[in-house]
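USER: Write out one fold?

ASSISTANT:
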Amino acid sequence: MPTQTSSKQSAPNSNACVLFLKNKGGRARLSELTFSQNVIQDLITKDIAKVKNTGAGFYLELENKS
């Protein structure tokens, strides 16, 4: 049962994470994110976001959709 609860909460949390990133100019440091690893992984798996190493830290960035 906990798996079902997690998947039900994943969609709103994913949307909240996307909105957070949009409000931050499309990217934010991984260390400042309060979203779960599952939410972040879900965004990466769906090609909505990617992790980028800038040399000054790791950032979660929204993918550019043309």
DSSP finds two helices and three strands in the chain. The longest strand covers residues 49-53. The first helix runs from residue 2 to 23. Strands lie at 27-29, 49-53, 58-62.
